[in-house]
Amino acid sequence: MTTKISHWIDGRLVEGSSGRTSPVFNPATGEHIADVELASDAEVASVVASARTAAQSWKVSSMSQRASVLFAFREILHRRSDELAQIVTREHGKVLSDAAGEIARGLENIEFATSVPQLLMGGHSAQASRGVDVYSIRHSLGVVAGITPFNFPVMVPLWMCGTAIACGNAFVLKPSEKDPSASLFLAQLWQEAGLPDGVFSVINGDKAAVDALIDHQDVAALSFVGSTPVAKYIYESGTARGKRVQALGGAKNHMLVLPDADVDLAADAAVSAGYGAAGERCMAVSVVVAVGDVGDRLVDAIAKRLPNLKTGAGTDPASEMGPLITSQHRDRVAGYIDAGFSEGAVVVVDGREAGVPKEGFFLGATLLDQVEPGMSVYRDEIFGPVLSVVRRETFDEAIELINSNPFANGTAIFTRDGGAARKFEQSVDVGMVGINVAIPVPVAYYSFGGWKASLFGDNHMYGPEGVAFFSRGKVVTSRWPDPATSTIDLGFPRTR
Where are the beta strands (DSSP E) in 218-313? Predict the structure, then answer.
């Protein structure tokens, strides 16, 4: 028996009326476990109306009230993280330890948002002119929406909603229809934490729901994480309607390894960053750039580690890598292995031949060598457990390769040379850089975001730039004059 997954509107589960649904699977078994309802335009309008009403009162709530709710939510989520991890693993497939890690990184963003009184503090200049004071304040936007991907059904929503709610907005979440249950769990926790009904809502749906959010005049801002084509579409459509938009797109993250690097350290990092969550991470390392004579040593070291990876159901504590999200995606990723071989890459380890469970959407770890930029395995974001090795003779050639790629989300360098690391940091045209750190996801008090085709919009995600995105500034010039000295002056106001 499958269950039905509904919407969360005005503080309660609301059954959909569109008649349209999408199947939800357990990727580890291939079992059809639920059907999620897909919202109509009318249902999107209903959730936005509820959020708009809630935003009117939430925006005038005290800073202490907002901080209190955020602290309570943080404590409840921390206490119930194991339950939430089970939900993530069941619908996404990632191993439980990875699901727990995702939740922990999301919690960091809630902890950052609890400092809302400090984050929204304005400035004040007394006596900017004689008898005149000038001060700045920050306002909420109203109703804002988050459109989030399947690969991080908890962390990415928490990147958005904590900051948005702290800034006084009502937040509407449109999660991926592939694994929507985690969002409804979060909604219940927000309610338990004391958040007024309507300030956090969940509307399930597909492109029709996204388009309805883009078109709705009461949605002031859209925050998105997903593929580059969709990010570009949402950015162009949203900004054309006068909305604020931050849209994070795809990635092709390069890890550069110099000849002086610790090869074992680099190989461990490449395997961890390339195959964690079956490669379904926007910050996964998908390309290793081996410089000079380190190539053979590095490829051998990576290849030796792959047979020891345990691929299986995420609920098995022994599993290190789970399944892909759908059978269609698994087959698409497997097709890239064929394409790489036919285009001239060397298949060092073929994940299609790995000993993986027959049930579910599994694919083993694949390692390709001698990959070149013209190949589809290099050009496309595969989003699966396929790691490509590109060889370059010099450090400068390696940087040129990275900078020529249209994606610029994250990158890393492995070296013992501080001068080379500093040159890399300064020269590489990528938004997030790791030095002997393969996945340089910033901590919550910085901001997350790439460059070029990996980000559309001016603001990165969460942290200080998240506060700037989910609030807007106002400057007030104030004078309390003595009526006896009031005169008419049509000249432009001066400060001297």
Answer: 219-225, 244-248, 253-257, 285-291
pTM: 0.94
Q: What is the pLDDT of residues 310-351, one digit of tens each?
A: 999 999 999 999 999 999 999 999 999 999 999 999 999 999
- How far CA 412 is from CA of 81, 261, 479, in Å, comes to 30, 12, 53
Indicate the fold that domain 253-435 takes in CATH: Aldehyde Dehydrogenase; Chain A, domain 2 (3.40.309)
Topology of domain 3-249+454-476 in CATH is Aldehyde Dehydrogenase; Chain A, domain 1 (3.40.605)
Catalytic residue set: 282
pLDDT digit string, tens, across residues 87-129:
999 999 999 999 999 999 999 999 999 998 899 999 999 999 9
Residue spans per domain, the chain: 3-249+454-476, 253-435
Same fold, 3-249+454-476 and 253-435: no
Q: How far apart are CA 156 and CA 334, in angstroms?
A: 27
Confidence band, pLDDT 50/70/90 cuts, at residue 484: low
pLDDT per residue as tens digits for the range 199-237: 999 999 999 999 999 999 999 999 999 999 999 999 999
Measured between alpha carbons, how far is residue 349 from residues 295, 299, 365 in Å? 16, 10, 7
